[in-house]
């Protein structure tokens, strides 16, 4: 967390009405603005959050404070009016990025949701810090799906594309721990990065649901944001062009089929929907 610009904010509201890619949810929930994982391919770099800030994406984080009572009140107010509340956490940050370790904002939101549960909560993360909150997650498990991103099993590929994210082995260990507590976990290969022949078998021993998402269906702009970030060049340097392009998901799915049945494999948005 050295050299990070950290600011503290008191948001008026914590739940955000959704649209676009997330329109099947009623709300998105971002405990932070900004993300220190700083993935090279992060589509938020090309969204207003990333573009209209005069600081490089990945070097700043705004911490949303005093959110536990807010989320309880907001969920309560929707439910009181007979409305459904389905929440995607998070659409433009990682709720378990390193600062969560000390700030515990995501944890306080979970505490609020245990007290006043939404109809459904989807948690998207790349971080093993999530295992710290198993005590709360088990209380929400009937209305929860956890999606752990594991884009590849190749550490040198991970370091090339997202050097500040947790190592693959740590993510796999976290999935194992979550599964030991019977929590519903899927693996998200999102975006698809080059992986080994052993990878499908490795993850099939941990989960029975997998979602693949490439840059063309998953960046919210049919690949335009990703093109502006020139991610293609990272693949070309290593002659990995098969793994990049509009058919990359088909290429990846062919390999996954050896370890997963077709009904266990989800493509892009369908793997992120509420149930
Ligand atoms: S973890 Fe997610 S939000 Fe954070 S930089 Fe990576 S892709 Fe972006």
From TrEMBL:
GO terms of molecular function: catalytic activity; iron-sulfur cluster binding; metal ion binding
All residue ranges annotated as the Radical SAM core domain in the record: 21-247
Alphabetized InterPro entries for the sequence: Elp3/MiaA/NifB-like_rSAM, MJ0683-like, rSAM, rSAM_sf
Keyword Hydrolase: no
Pfam family of the protein (one): Radical_SAM
Superkingdom per UniProt: Bacteria
Keyword annotations of the record: Iron, Iron-sulfur, Metal-binding
Coiled-coil blocks: none
UniProt KW Zinc-finger keyword: no
Protein name: Radical SAM protein
Organism: Perspicuibacillus lycopersici
